[in-house]
């Protein structure tokens, strides 16, 4: 369906009557003394092309309200057909299960604190001071053993010397005894040699006792060293065991914390699904309600369906012959009950629809128009009128397309100038069947409309019918055929 809003409609009516009245019977030029003409002064105005269509208000979005976990419904605050605002509490649920989950989460967090305390208490390495003390003790024993061995060696050397001295003393004593028999030595000398033998024998016994004492002490020290070494081995074993236990305790505590954290994450995920209530995500109207108080709500189907009142669009069908002039982003004037709202073309379908019947076949393409639904006051299902502005020129110089003449490639019009038709060449910026936007004329030029039988230089007189002003807003459909009457042409899609 197309609509042409044209301010020069009256012009066309005037042209139709006067044109045929004055020029219906062609006269010889010599018989025509004066040509009566109708003129329109050139004025600046807003020029626009537009296409009209019938539209219907629809909702683009419907919100379906789901839950992620089966819950017992406590209260349903709204019924079907109720109007809600974004944030309104639609449904509340029993909180017992939610509270149990919260308590379990807190219990797990306390257990994590306990495990962290265990880690804190075992973070320091086991003391090895006993091991170091034992090693020091063994070093001292080892030194004692070395000293005893050295003393034993010295004692044995001393014993050897004493034995040699004793052997020499015995020989000397035997010699002295023989000499004493022959009075070669005195009794004193003999006794002295005997005393020397006895003294050395006594020294040897003492040295032997000393050596035996060293040997016993060496055995004791070796036994002591062996016992100390066994004690060291035991201390080292106990240390490694304690360190292993300590490290394993820390590992087990860390593993326990990881398990508890996983448990908490699972519980918190479950808690997130265990909602206290559901709020409306949009402003709208409840179209379906499947929630029942004191019954379990299922996850298999939505609890409510809400028509999003702010997702309104208008759909309309534009004929295939007009759709090429329609572009996304073009202004659309929406009319409902004489109230106008501004919208924009937001979508043009890529698929056409063919409608046929009763001897006709029309092809249409669906478009979508968006607008401020909060201020428009439309409801889904309303039928509205759309005027799609396909082009617009501000401060346009507009003339009737009937006044334009052609001379080869040049376009021109005849202008009334002091009783004479004067030619002025023009450039057509944009045109329709009835109206043209041009360049080449001045504001106030009187363009002759009924110029079919008039040439430049002809004498002309004005009729008493002078159209003195172009309407401020001039629109014209490009595909509309000119006609003599007020009919708008086109027509609506058959029902």
UniProtKB/TrEMBL annotation:
Keyword terms: Coiled coil, Membrane, Transmembrane, Transmembrane helix
Location(s) in or outside the cell: Cell envelope
GO cellular component entries: cell envelope
Region (Disordered): 470-495
Domain YknX-like beta-barrel: 313-388
Biased composition (Gly residues): 486-495
Primary localization class, coarse: other
TM regions (residue ranges): 5-22
Coiled coil: 131-277
The keyword Membrane is annotated on this UniProt entry: yes
Protein name: Multidrug efflux pump subunit AcrA (Membrane-fusion protein)
Species name: Hypnocyclicus thermotrophus
């Amino acid at each position: 369906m197309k609509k042409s809003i044209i301010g020069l409609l009256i012009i066309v009516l005037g042209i139709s009557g006067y044109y045929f009245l004055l020029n219906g019977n062609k006269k010889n030029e010599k018989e025509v003394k004066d040509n009566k003409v109708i003129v329109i002064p050139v004025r600046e105005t807003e020029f626009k092309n537009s296409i009209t269509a019938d539209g219907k208000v629809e909702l683009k979005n419907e919100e379906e309200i789901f839950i992620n976990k089966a819950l017992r419904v406590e209260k349903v605050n709204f019924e079907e057909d109720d109007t809600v605002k974004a944030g309104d509490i639609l449904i509340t649920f029993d909180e017992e299960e939610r509270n149990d989950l919260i308590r379990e989460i807190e219990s797990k967090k306390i257990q994590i604190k306990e495990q962290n305390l265990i880690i804190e208490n075992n973070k320091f390495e086991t003391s090895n001071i006993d091991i170091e003390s034992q090693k020091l003790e063994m070093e001292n024993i080892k030194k004692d053993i070395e000293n005893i061995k050295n003393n034993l060696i010295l004692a044995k050397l001393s014993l050897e010397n004493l034995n040699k001295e004793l052997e020499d003393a015995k020989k000397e004593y035997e010699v002295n005894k023989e000499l004493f028999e022959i009075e070669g030595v005195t009794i004193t000398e003999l006794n002295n040699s005997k005393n020397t033998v006895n003294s050395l024998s006594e020294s040897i016994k003492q040295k032997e006792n000393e050596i035996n004492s060293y040997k016993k002490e060496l055995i004791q020290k070796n036994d002591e060293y062996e016992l100390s070494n066994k004690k060291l081995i035991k201390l080292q074993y106990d240390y490694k065991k304690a360190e292993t236990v300590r490290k394993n305790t820390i590992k087990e505590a860390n593993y326990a914390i990881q398990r508890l954290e996983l448990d908490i994450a699972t519980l918190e995920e479950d808690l997130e699904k265990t909602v206290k209530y559901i709020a409306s995500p949009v402003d709208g109207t409840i179209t379906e309600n499947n929630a029942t108080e004191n019954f379990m709500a299922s996850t298999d189907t939505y609890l409510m369906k809400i028509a999003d009142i702010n997702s309104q669009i208008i759909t309309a069908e534009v004929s295939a012959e007009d759709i090429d002039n329609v572009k996304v982003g073009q202004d659309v004037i929406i009319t409902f009950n004489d109230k106008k709202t501004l919208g924009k073309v937001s979508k043009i379908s890529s698929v056409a629809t063919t409608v046929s019947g009763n001897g006709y076949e029309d092809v249409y393409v669906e478009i979508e128009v968006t607008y401020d639904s909060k201020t428009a006051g439309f409801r889904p299902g309303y039928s509205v009128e759309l005027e799609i502005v396909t082009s617009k020129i501000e401060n346009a110089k507009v003339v009737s397309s009937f006044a334009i003449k052609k001379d080869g490639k040049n376009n021109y019009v005849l202008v009334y100038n002091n009783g004479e038709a004067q030619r002025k060449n023009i450039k057509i910026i944009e045109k329709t069947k009835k109206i043209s936007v041009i360049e080449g004329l001045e504001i106030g030029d009187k363009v002759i409309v009924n110029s079919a039988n008039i040439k430049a230089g002809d004498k002309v007189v004005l009729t008493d019918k002078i159209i003195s002003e172009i309407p401020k807003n001039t629109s014209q459909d490009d595909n509309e055929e000119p006609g003599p009457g007020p009919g708008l042409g086109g027509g609506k899609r058959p029902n």
